[in-house]
């Protein structure tokens, strides 16, 4: 990895992001931040082999330039600039076996570190998810995986609970149902971290919650 300094510095930015700043008084967020930064530090220390994959774009990546421009003007400029250095090497994917045609035009994610590389580790997955303006990312949850999002660019909301600005961290604990909507005018770029058992990180089984179960689960039934 040290022979690919742009990737090394991108991971450094992640480590800084999860080290600095406040957990807002939340014990769960504090321990999640600690787990993420310790895993990233350990990977940086171990200097793993890179497992580069063929770069891939998706329709939404036409919005990446704009998302990076917005990110570089705000509090997340360090991460946005580091990501722009590797933006032509990213493998954008959907993750789901079935993606609706409308979501396929407006969403994709890329991994930076994890069992599938490009920086290889079984301890943690980190990456970015990109949404076009005016997107609804349907309700879902993750089995045994704890997920945090940090806004890099654009405004978005989760479960209609608040509007999150660049720099905000949102934690979804394992099993928490979540649904995302994004602002009308600008794309939205989020950094994410997934922490959980290695076997689960290798096979996360991404599934959207079936529509008839969505309301029931939101209401805790
Ligand atoms: Fe999620």
UniProtKB/TrEMBL annotation:
SUPFAM superfamilies to which the protein is assigned, alphabetical: RmlC-like cupins
Statement: the UniProt record of this protein carries the keyword Lyase: yes
Signal peptide location: none
Keyword Lyase belongs to the record: yes
Pfam family, one: DMSP_lyase
Keywords attached to this entry: Lyase
GO molecular function: dimethylpropiothetin dethiomethylase activity
Protein name: Dimethlysulfonioproprionate lyase DddL
Lineage: Bacteria, Pseudomonadati, Pseudomonadota, Alphaproteobacteria, Rhodobacterales
